[in-house]
Amino acid sequence: MRKVLYPAYEARMLRRMPGNLPKHIGVMLDGNRRWAKAVGRDTAHGHQAGAANIEPLLGWCDEVGIEVVTLWLLSTDNLNRPARELEPLLEIIADAVDSLADQRRWRLHPVGALDLLPHETAKRLKAAAEATADVDGMTVNIAVAYGGRREIADAVRSLLTEHAALGTPLEMLAQQIDIEHIEEHLYTKGQPDPDLVIRTSGEQRLGGFLLWQSAKSEFYFCEAYWPDFRRVDFLRAIRAYAQRERRFGS
């Protein structure tokens, strides 16, 4: 029955979708491990199931005209997991990114402290970015080894290094520095801030995701674990966003 009803329901939602849609969506792909435990499988199976749901999500975003998507696949804290879990996860992420790059439908942009990753993983992420740099499609930020605090620290470090090379006195820099200067050194520089941040698995916290950029974002928390996140869940999130009166932090 669901196979019959859900497509009709989704089609109706699309027809009635308002025009004020988000340009940039951030997605916290959460719940892979808990999903695996619930279905009686190992953690790697959960991560693999989660990776398999990335391409459908990007297709749904294309469908409604999203311009930028940021996918949080691995935090800096996750790098402290046991090697028996982390190594397969890094391989799954790299394989997923390679697959997305091979399709040449989206422009991939790794964001995060890539220097903290194993050399081969970082190399594959950078290669995916280079291979899709000329693609005229949606920008997809691949957040791996990403942490919001680390990003802000890296931005400030980059700003200081830049001005040190120019010979700018520290006192002068302290007087001149403003929000725009820091934004120019974020991983997402040149991109619009996320209008909507979606987190799956029922957790209702940011956990360090896009701390700077999400100051005025709307948030949508979904109970489904990431591998179970469906097109209808995505459309509900978009509809909920469109129905809100944005106050932009006021």
UniProtKB/TrEMBL annotation:
It comes from Nocardioides simplex (Arthrobacter simplex). Catalyzes the condensation of isopentenyl diphosphate (IPP) with allylic pyrophosphates generating different type of terpenoids. Its EC number is 2.5.1.-. One of its GO terms (biological process) is polyprenol biosynthetic process. Its cofactor is Mg(2+). The active site is at D30, N78. Homodimer. GO terms for molecular function: ditrans,polycis-polyprenyl diphosphate synthase [(2E,6E)-farnesyl diphosphate specific] activity; magnesium ion binding; Z-farnesyl diphosphate synthase activity. Belongs to the UPP synthase family. Z-FPP synthase subfamily. Substrate binds at G31, N32, R33, R34, W35, H47, S75, T76, D77, R81, R199. Transmembrane segments: none annotated. This is Isoprenyl transferase.
